[in-house]
Design goal:
Order of helices and strands: HEHEHEEHHHEEHHHHH
Largest sheet: 4 strands, parallel
Radius of gyration: 22 Å
Helix content: 40-55%
Structural class: alpha/beta
Mean pLDDT: 85
């Protein structure tokens, strides 16, 4: 039996077990939701329960492929005795739209507008709420000054992470196995004072290239060259309307974490001594790892307004249940 055949057989067995579990709980007062991982359930559950007045059952599928496999399995049963609008599937978009991701589309499948759910956490409104609710900064002038600084560095982050994002995109478009679990984007940049002004510094492209190859364990060290990267950069800029659509969500969320860590450790202390500003010292006890991203999602979730496309998806399925 080949590895591919083994995986298919494994999913068939898992899907059958899950089918009987769903069947045992399914009735007209339940909604069953299928997620890639734990963080996804944390993110979506509150929004789902706000709209669906039903008993919620969440299933962690451990990956996008498994979500797709389960969807196809249930679809093959022709939704027999099921109301498909009570069976909802959630997945990240990733780079599927340019990397020929062959995933199903249906009215009960939600796909993020951005690369992944983490991208929804990094915007000016979430930033404002964290300043107000976590750091307890009430001074309007200081808040607006910090917001302008955040937006300036955020735009710089978008500009400077383009090269790294292009390497990620290149591997996806060309179907090169390059797992990102060991990639810590926090090792690629730092936030610091530059001429007494807050700034962001990225490693140069050569060091980024070396780091990417080392951490993803790509076999051929010559797969990247300037021509290839320039082409993929141009494609990303031309194809997408916003950097959030191609920047890995965990990378962008890491920027927010690093920003607040620096803010708490150095920048706010400086403001406090020079401007007599009152604020609450707050330890940002999350890190730029996959587990750290999950913890950040849990901690900052209440600051994120439900995305309009998610609200429309849930309302549509609720009305058809």
């Amino acid at each position: 039996m080949t590895r591919e055949e083994f995986i298919v057989q494994k999913y068939k067995i898992q899907n059958k077990k899950l089918f009987f579990q769903i069947k045992a709980e399914y009735n007209n007062k339940t909604v069953h939701c299928f997620f890639e991982g734990n963080a996804d359930e944390i993110f979506y559950r509150n929004y789902i329960e706000t709209i669906f007045e039903h008993n919620f059952f969440g299933y962690i599928c451990k990956g996008k492929i498994k979500v797709e496999s389960l969807y196809l399995y249930l679809k093959k049963l022709n939704w027999y005795k099921w109301n498909k609008n009570r069976l909802l599937f959630f997945r990240d978009k990733d780079l599927d739209d340019i990397a020929n991701g062959n995933y199903s589309k249906d009215e009960n499948i939600f796909e993020t507008k951005y690369y992944s759910i983490e991208n929804y956490f990094v915007d000016k409104e979430v930033f404002r709420k964290i300043l107000k609710d976590i750091f307890k900064i009430r001074d309007k002038k200081v808040n607006e000054s910090l917001l302008l600084t955040f937006k300036r560095l955020h735009n710089k982050f978008y500009e400077q992470i383009l090269f790294f994002s292009s390497m990620v995109a290149y591997t996806r478009v060309n179907n090169i196995n390059a797992p990102l679990e060991n990639v810590k984007i926090s090792e690629m940049f730092e936030i610091t004072f530059i001429n007494d002004k807050l700034g962001i510094i990225f490693k140069d492209s050569e060091k980024q290239n070396e780091y990417f190859i080392e951490k993803t364990k790509i076999n051929d060290n010559d797969i990247f060259d300037n021509v290839q990267i320039n082409k993929i950069q141009a494609k990303l800029i031309e194809y997408y309307n916003h950097p959030k659509e191609y920047i890995r969500g965990k990378f962008e969320l890491c920027f927010l974490i690093i920003f607040f860590k620096f803010l708490n450790k150095k920048y706010l202390a400086k403001l406090k001594t020079t401007n007599n500003i009152k604020f609450q010292d707050e330890k940002i006890d999350v890190h730029c790892t996959d587990k750290g991203s999950d913890k950040a999602i849990e901690r900052f979730l209440s600051k994120v307004k439900i995305p309009i496309e998610l609200k429309q998806f849930l309302q549509f399925n609720y009305n058809k249940r």
